[in-house]
Amino acid sequence: MPLTLEQLNAVSPAEALALLDGLYEHSPWIAEQALAQRPFRTLAHLKHALAQVVRTAELDAQLGLIRAHPELAGKAMVAKNLTAESTNEQSTAGLTQCTPEEFERIQQLNAAYNERFGFPFILAVRGPRGTGLPKREIIDTFARRLDNHPEFELAEALRNIHRIAEIRLNDKFAAEPVLGNDVWDWQEKLAEHSDPGFAEKGQLTVTYLTDAHRACAQRISHWMRDCGFDDVEIDAVGNVVGRYHPAEPAAPGKRYLMTGSHYDTVRNGGKYDGRLGIFVPMACVRELHRAGKRLPFGIEVVGFAEEEGQRYKATFLGSGALIGDFNPAWLDQKDVEGVTMRAAMQHAGLCIDDIPKLQRDPAQYLGFIEVHIEQGPVLNELDLPLGVVTSINGGVRFVAEMIGTASHAGTTPMDRRRDAAVAVAELALYVAQRAAQDGDSVGTIGQLNVPGGSINVVPGRCQFSLDLRAPTDAQRDALVRDVLDELARIAQRRGLRYTLEESMRAAAAPSAPALQHHWERAVDTLGVPVFRMPSGAGHDAMKLHEIMPQAMLFVRGQNSGISHNPLESTTNNDMQLAVDAFTQVLRQLAEETQP
């Protein structure tokens, strides 16, 4: 019989410890310390308690835990003396059936890894879906992680140990993340569509109104119909819009909750950026439909056609159109192949004349909420599956050039140089130091170029970019002011001049307190600590923020939260928690709006 939380909470400490035996390889101290926190409200609560015991343990204890794990396809497997849990995991991933070549390669990697780090390579080989990773992916991950910094790799090993323990707990409790699996599967199937030139390489790229983009729109619209949405359409800019009507759709004052995210991607990107925010609410609507249930308000899920700005020099085309922010001049922009946006839209069968009709009346909406993969390392490092967003950072970008004098690198004394690159390097250090003073501010010089530079020439010119962001406009503006003042001081002190052009300015989008509170209550109900954090990246929510209240929920990413990268990932369990949190928000809003 599966274990239950009621059992675990009721039995003696010794009995409870026995029930959790095998979660962490030969390390019962973790469960013993975590059990002091009983009673556990949810399985997610128990998982977090276990992870926190490891996170706060001494380094020697953490290393002991890692070293308690067997090598992948190592001597213990050959000798058949793995624990039952490890045997099951390595077998699920096919490691018990390696070819001689695969086995030799893994042995080489094991030796190199142990020599570099002093502990065995740990990977949750059952993977983020729980069904096992392909051997090729296991070997590629092994080789890639050999290049990690030792401190980072120790943390990565512990994160994988927690995933292994999570899957083992799921087995003990017969806890299947059914909706998380469905969301996972939708994203995997949607990722079958990719633009030419990338699809052949196994890379995911979906840019605005390409054949792959249009195929994605069709697939999402079909799935929405299967989920029970009442109305589904692809609108005049390519957004996929599904509406699930309220209980009394014709009654006066009946409004909709808008949600969703984008389905386009960056070049060679990941499968979850944006798309997670479409499929989570779709799963919730499907469950409402299956139960024959309607809410006092309707639900409008929008798969925004474009957010990334990859094909044309215009971003947030999808969400911008819904707030009346679509500039007709964009229609004349050309992509790298010379195709205008107008021609691309006409080829896709979109009705350009209908774009102004897409503008929403905010009086008809409760607000906008968005679920999104974090795209950063914070939740991963804290062993937290969810984060409540407090604000989407406002930002200002500049393109600039420092101008000095090019001269001979051997004959120009150091105190006589007018070195443009050194000046920009000095500014880059200042940006890093100044942004760190605010905590949540960030500053980046992401482009740095010495035109026509030579190894033996003091740089006379240096082109660079500035990207400055903060959770509030006031904090952002203070950061900008200080950085530009320092730029002026550096140039004057070094006898240089510079040009500076502002290329982008976006206002911060603080979360609406009421909607943020709904996310917080939902996360707490799941037994997960409520962690509040700003979003450093821009999202469709910041566009909707201009006309209606908005709030976001972040979902932890794997591989240190990397995003805009093929390694972008999250787990079926974390997706399930996102669906559960969204369901809780719907329940809370239904109670509020009940007549």
Question: Short description, anyone?
Answer:
The chain contains 21 helices and 16 strands. It is of the alpha+beta class.
Model description:
Helix 5 crosses helix 10, helix 11 crosses helix 21 and helix 13 crosses helix 21. The longest helix has 24 residues. Helix content is 42%, strand content 15%. The strands form three sheets. Strands 1, 2, 3, 4, 5, 6, 14, 15 and 16 form a nine-stranded mixed sheet that branches. With 595 residues, it is an alpha+beta fold. It is built from 21 helices and 16 strands.
Secondary-structure class: alpha+beta
Strand content: 15-25%
Main β-sheet, in a few words?
9 strands, mixed
Average predicted local confidence, pLDDT: 95
Number of strands: 16
Tally of alpha and pi helices: 21
- The separation of the N and C termini measures 44 Å
- How many whole angstroms does the radius of gyration measure? 26 Å
Classify the helix fraction into a percent range: 40-55%
> What are the segments in which pLDDT stays under 50 over at least 5 consecutive residues?
none
Shape: globular
Q: How does the SSE layout of this entry go?
A:
Elements: H1 5-10, H2 13-19, H3 28-34, H4 43-55, H5 59-67, H6 75-78, H7 84-92, H8 100-117, H9 135-145, H10 150-173, H11 178-190, H12 211-227, E1 231-234, E2 240-244, E3 256-262, H13 276-290, E4 298-304, H14 317-322, H15 341-347, E5 365-373, H16 378-382, E6 386-392, E7 394-403, E8 407-408, H17 420-436, E9 442-444, E10 448-449, E11 457-458, E12 461-470, H18 473-494, E13 497-506, E14 509-510, H19 513-525, E15 532-535, H20 540-544, E16 550-555, H21 572-593
Parallel strand pairs: 3-4, 3-5, 5-16, 6-15
Antiparallel strand pairs: 1-2, 2-4, 6-14, 6-16, 7-12, 7-13, 8-11, 9-12, 10-12
Helix pairs in contact: 3-4, 4-10, 5-10, 8-9, 11-13, 11-21, 12-13, 13-21, 17-18, 19-21
